[in-house]
Design brief:
Layout lengths: L2 H82 L2 E5 L10 H12 L10 E6 L10 E5 L2 H8 L2 H4 L5 E4 L3 H19 L4 E4 L2 E4 L2 E6 L4 E4 L3 H16 L2 H5 L5
Antiparallel strand pairs: 1-3, 1-4, 2-3, 5-6, 6-7, 7-8
Amino acid sequence: MSDEGIKQLIKEMQSLRASVNKIEVLAEGIEGLKTIFSEFSCKVEETNRAIKSEIAGLALSCSTVNKDLRKTQSKIDFLEKELKNMNLIIYNFDPKHRGPSLASDILSCLNEIVPNLDLERRDIKDIFRLRSKNNGVPPVVIKFISKPLRDLVLRSSGLFSRHKLYISPDYTERERMARDKLKPLLAEARSKNMPAKLRGVRLILQDKILTYDFENEKIIEVSGPSVRDMVPIALGRLQGQSRQSLDHETPR
C-alpha cells in the first residue's frame, strides 16, 4: 500500500474514532437521562401514593363529617319534633280574634266543634298567632299540655271544615319538606280518582305506603309487614270519608 493510501486509512480511522467517541458520549447522556427519568418516575409514584393517601384520608373525613351531620340533623329533627309534638295549628281563624281574648276564643271554638271536649285554659300551655306568609289570615298555634289531648282534637279534623277552619299537626321543617315532595303524587292520584291520603310524612296510595328518603333524595316505598297490614285499613277509612275531607290540604 502506498504512503497516500496509508495516510487516507489513518484519516478514516481517526474519523471513525471521533464518531465512536461521540456515540459513547451520547450513550452516557442517554444513561444519565434514563437515571433522571427513573428518579423522576419514582418521585411521581411516591407523590401519587401520597396524593391517593390524602384523598383516602379526606374521603374518610368527609364520610365521618357526613355521618356526624346526619346524626346532628337527626338530633335537631328529634328535638324540633319533641317541641312541636303537642302542638296543633288552626288555619283561617278570624283575625279579629287576637290579643288577650285569643285564648278564650280558641277554647270556645274547639269546645263548640269537637263533641264532649270541654277544654279549659289549664289544658293549654300557650296560644299565639304565626305570621302569615301570603298576606292571608295568620294561623294560630295551640300548645296542649299533653299529646293525647291534642290527638283527641286532631281526630276531629273533618268537623272543622264545616266552619271553614282547618287544623293540622305542627310539622317540623323536615316533615314539611317531605310532604311537599309527596304532594304531587297525591294530586296525581286524586286526578285519577284513586284513593290516596297524605298522613304526616307518609303517602297511602293504592297498596303502597310511600315516603321521602332525604339521604338518597328520592321517594321510596316503606316496606315491612306491619306497614303493609296498615294499608287496607287506611284505604278503607279513606273510601268511607267524604270527598271534602279527602281534598283538604292545609297550607303547611
